[in-house]
Specification:
The protein is of the alpha+beta class. The chain is about 45% helix and about 20% strand. Helix 1 packs antiparallel against helix 2 and helix 2 packs antiparallel against helix 3.
Length: about 140
């Protein structure tokens, strides 16, 4: 069997595998095998075919794949409403326990509970907003 045909079969198998995984890695390896098939058809010796495959695969995996993934994954849009408060820093206005308390986030007072039910947060402590459920913020003290 001709070397170019073997490389073409490898490219096809990798392309089919890429369809099932959707990682873009196998697609890049398939493209490298396709380029190598063209070089093998042009008469490149087998040792240089392997070197060409390794170079094309490495370049495509290191440089092309990250760009392709950036275009495939949608960018994270801005967060609005209560979603924008998660991760913010707040100040405990009153003692915050697992059952209740008050905090101030960006000048607004919120009812709060400790993210860890056994934790008691003293007034004046800086806390991080971990989660918001309804009108209650679940907070954890910042170290």
């Amino acid at each position: 069997m001709d070397p170019w045909l073997i490389w073409l079969i490898i490219a096809a198998v990798l392309a089919v595998a890429e369809i099932f995984t959707l990682t873009a890695a196998l697609g890049m390896l398939s493209a490298a095998a396709l380029v190598t098939a063209g070089l093998a058809a042009a008469g490149l010796p087998p040792a240089l075919q392997l070197v060409a495959y390794a170079l094309v695969a490495a370049v495509s995996l290191l440089f092309v794949r990250p760009v392709a993934l950036r275009h495939l994954l949608p960018p994270q849009g801005p967060r609005f409403g209560i979603d924008a408060l998660i991760g913010k820093t707040a100040l405990a206005v009153s003692e915050v326990t697992g059952t209740g308390g008050r905090i101030r986030i960006d000048g607004e007072e919120w009812s709060a509970r400790s993210y860890d039910d056994t934790l008691v947060i003293a007034p004046g402590t800086t806390v991080d907003v971990m989660e918001i459920s309804g009108t209650t913020a679940f907070v954890y003290p910042r170290d």
